[in-house]
Amino acid sequence: MTTPRRGRPGYDLESLLQVAVKLFNERGYDGTSMEDLSRKLGITKSAIYHHVPSKEELLRLAVDRALDGLFEVAASTDQLDGRAIDRLEHLVRGSVLVLADRLPFVTLLLRVRGNTKVERAALARRREFDRLVTDLVKQAEAEGDIRPDVDPAVTARLVFGMVNSLIEWYKPRRGSAAAEVADAVCKVAFEGLRTGS
Amino acid sequence: MTTPRRGRPGYDLESLLQVAVKLFNERGYDGTSMEDLSRKLGITKSAIYHHVPSKEELLRLAVDRALDGLFEVAASTDQLDGRAIDRLEHLVRGSVLVLADRLPFVTLLLRVRGNTKVERAALARRREFDRLVTDLVKQAEAEGDIRPDVDPAVTARLVFGMVNSLIEWYKPRRGSAAAEVADAVCKVAFEGLRTGS
Fold it and tell me: Over 60: is that where the pLDDT of B31 sits?
């Protein structure tokens, strides 16, 4: 092209991805076409294909952004010494911060149903993460720090049920809000609602 | 018709609704046409319209099945005397049992995004239910039974984050399973994971 399109914002892969994820969350991944995306961006489909080869590749980039964040927290948890319950609390707290920081990406991840190769791969990584959590719960139970009267897999699911609920209600605001929510999740999960419990 | 269709199961509204809800959950409400439903049921669209005037009416019946169950529990909670924390526990336990019993209906309800009149009405009833929960948490906090260091609306959302996570992982099995899960949710929510907490 000889005429630069002045005044129209250009897109790099990152800004394109952000718009795509927003659209996928609004209309569903299956319900969004590359045509819809090109209309939303105000650029041609071939301009999109300049950055990314397919809609599925956009999905892969998006869900990996969420999963990579969660697995980085898991890796840093693995570096810690000490009791399993403290490592579990570190993992829960870090996961809340990842959700708050990468909310649209995690929202998309949690709605993935497994209809494509990318979606199945994401579900497999989610299961791997769930296993890490369940293993930590088991270890903390073996160390006598977690109540033994709830199945560890159920405990892990309930705690991450709280964490994942953020996608339904958390509104990113000032910087401290995410840390406050992480505190709230840890208080409720580890100490319970009841005073004197 | 003069020839009864022997060997093909007939549908009443209830069985038709069950198939519709399953399909809505698999493909999304927006992604499911009455044509899809007629193919799945093996009956004509006009046979469906004999039972129900529109796809949206099927959605309304389905989400009301979920919401009515939750509001019945809320009404029975309201009849109880005693401390707010005990009423809250009754509401949480009852909600888990409703989810377990009406799982496909609640799954559909929790995925509703508010694009139609029926969806907006369902979201309004969900907000009303959330307010009831938050009010109970506030009352229990005022009575000194719930930790005052977490915002009551956040507490309410986290507890129902646990409850609602059932749609992701609960598999209906033998009769006692739902009661066990309800116990687990109440233990984790009210007493916390930590032993000696």
Answer: yes
